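Students often ask why we bother encoding 3D structure as a string. The short answer is that it lets us treat folding as translation between two languages. Here is a chain of 88 residues written in the first language.
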Amino acid sequence: MLHALFPVLVMALGTAFKAAVMAELLANAGGVGEALAVARANLDVAAALAWILLSVAALIGVEYGLLQPLRAEFETWREAARPWGVKR
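And here it is in the second language, the structure alphabet:
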């Protein structure tokens, strides 16, 4: 069941990041969303793109720093299923 669980976790993580930033953007509650809203209101395209890049980098960092090593640890059976050490 783990082979189906981890892709769902990755999708849920991406959706959660997007929803959190959008909630901050709409509520002006502080954080990345508020900074993005201020940059957008001031027509500061460079700052808005920098905040977007920062949030995407954080999402990629969490995925490859936390979820992928956890996936590799739980799915050791995939390594055993590879025939004669074939690398993909």
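Translate back mentally: Residues 37 and 43 are 10 Å apart (CA to CA). Keep this in mind for the problem set.
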